[in-house]
Amino acid sequence: MNKRLTALGILLVLLSILFMNCAAILNNSGKKVGVNSTPTGAEVYVNGEMLGRTPVTLELDRKQHHEIVVKHDGEERTYVLTKKLGAGWIVLDVLFGVVPVAIDAATGAWYSLQPKELDVDFSQQ
After folding, report:
1. Each residue of 67-102: pLDDT tens digit?
2. Which domains does the chain have, with CATH numbers?
3. Cα–Cα distance between 56 and 22 in angstroms, integer?
4. Are 29 and 22 in contact (CB under 8 A)?
5. What are phi and psi of 70, to 5 degrees?
6. Are 54 and 40 in contact (CB under 8 A)?
7. Gap between the Cα atoms of 80 and 88, Å rounded
8. Residue 58: which of 46, 70, 48 has the closest Cα?
């Protein structure tokens, strides 16, 4: 009986370590955003700074909203990426204690950016 309790205790400790900071460990989505255009080669600006030409994958801070402007041949399209709070991550963190809550809140791992991809069509007038 004592060995079973010890084994169960070890298992619970290992599971709690595994699921600590659930969002920080498991939530890789939300900070990479793909931007594509037709035709390709459009300039991509994030919060006023040019970060590349399409097709491009942007690495963005998921703790804040971002304004994306895509420009091609004098035309431009503006999009706002919004941060979305994943309530499921909060529930998991709360179940496993204060440490995961603090880490995921500080790192912003609870958030993802929406939309995750932009497809801009400049061929249609």
Report:
1. 999 999 999 999 999 887 665 555 665 666 656 666
2. 21-121 (2.60.40)
3. 29
4. no
5. -115, 125
6. yes
7. 24
8. 46
